Amino acid sequence: FRSGLDPAMLECAFPNGEGIRELYWGFWWKPSSPFQSDGSGVNKIAFLWTPTKQGNSTDLLYFDLSPNPWRIRAMNDLIAGGGPSADQRLEPNVDTTTVALGAWHRIEIYAKYSTESNANGVLRWWVDGHLNGDYANLRMAQDGGFDHVQFAPTYGGNTGDTKNQDDYYRIDHVRISRGN
Length: 180
Hints:
Order of helices and strands: EEEEEEEEEEE
Number of strands: 11
Strand order of the largest sheet: 1-10-3-4-5-6
C-alpha cells in the first residue's frame, strides 16, 4: 500500500465523550524484522486524540518509529492549541533507546493537558523503562481533554512511497489509566 495509509486501526474512545486531562498509556510493541521505513522516516504507531476540530484539522499527538537509529519519537500536531512546539517533531531529549527490530519493547506514555492558555501541558514517553522524551511546554485548545487513543500503524507521511514488503507491528498488554 502507499504512504500515508494504515492497514488496520484499533481505538479506545473514552466513555460518554468524557475528556481525560491526564493519562498513562502503556503497551508492549514489536516491529517486524526487517522493516521498510517510509522515505520520510515516519512510521506511525499510536495516536492520542483531542476532540478539537477546526476546519479539517484535529489536534493530536502521535508516536512513530524512525530510523537512523531506530527510535520512538512524537509529533506535536496540537495546532489549534498552538504553543512553542506545535507542529514539530519531538525527538528524544533525555535518552534515546535504540529499538531492536523483531523484539518486544515496552512503550509508556504520560500526557497531561495544559491549563487555560498556558503552555504547560506535559508529554513524557519511556522505551523499555528508560525515559526518552520529556516535554512540558505543550498547549492544547481548552476543549475538555483527550477523547480517545488509537493504534493505527500508518506507513509514512504521504510521500508517495510504496511498501515493497510485508511488515507488521504486534501490540500486547495494553493499559490506560486516567489521572484525577
